[in-house]
Amino acid sequence: MLTEKMLTVWVKKTQRGVAGRYYGFRQRPHIVARVGLEFPMKLHLYQYAQHVGQRHWLADREEAAVYVLAHECRHFWQQHSRLRNAPFPEGRGRVSTRGVFSEVDTEAYAIHKLREWRRGRMKGSRVAASLLTEESTREREVIK
How far is C-alpha 99 from the geometric centre of its chain's CA atoms? Predict the structure, then answer.
């Protein structure tokens, strides 16, 4: 049976860049995330069709940690979502046609959680909220 206490997370410091790894097949599930010290930095997504032309930036170490941990936690969910006693929302885990983890799903989920975290972080700041509104308006104009 899977319980909430079965996932261990380590966040380590590295000189630059962000990376993460989910280990969960032969040992106790754990995540190792490495977060750099140089910010802001451009986020390089896996080059799938839905990411072509998108640019994402990480402003600081907190945003980088949120992004990497959301990505790796999604891999954990993909592996364990089929269990009946899973301690998280049930559903079918997204896997590719070959039965391996879906990077498309994990990238989309990580970006979604990063945006959700940014909205919560900027809730109290009027200036930040206005900048967010202006940015989304500019994105819509570019799409048209």
Answer: 21
Q: Give the pLDDT score at 32.
A: 94
Buried b (16+ CB within 10 A) or exposed e, 24-39: beeeebbbbbbbbeeb
- Give a yes or no: residue 102 inside a domain: yes
State the total domains in the chain: 1
State pLDDT tens for residues 48-99.
Answer: 666 677 778 899 999 999 999 999 998 888 887 766 665 555 555 555 556 6
Q: Find the angle CA(84)-CA(117)-CA(141) to the nearest 5 degrees.
A: 115
If one counts every other C-beta atom within 10 angstroms of the C-beta of residue 66, the result is 20
User: Distance (Å, rounded) from C-alpha 130 to C-alpha 25?
Assistant: 45
* Model pTM score: 0.72
- Position 75 in a domain: yes
As given in the structure block, the two tokens for residue 2 are 């899977």
* AA letter at 40: P
**Residue 23 domain flag:** no
Range of the domain at 81: 38-143
CA-CA distance, 113 to 132, in Å (whole number)? Answer: 16
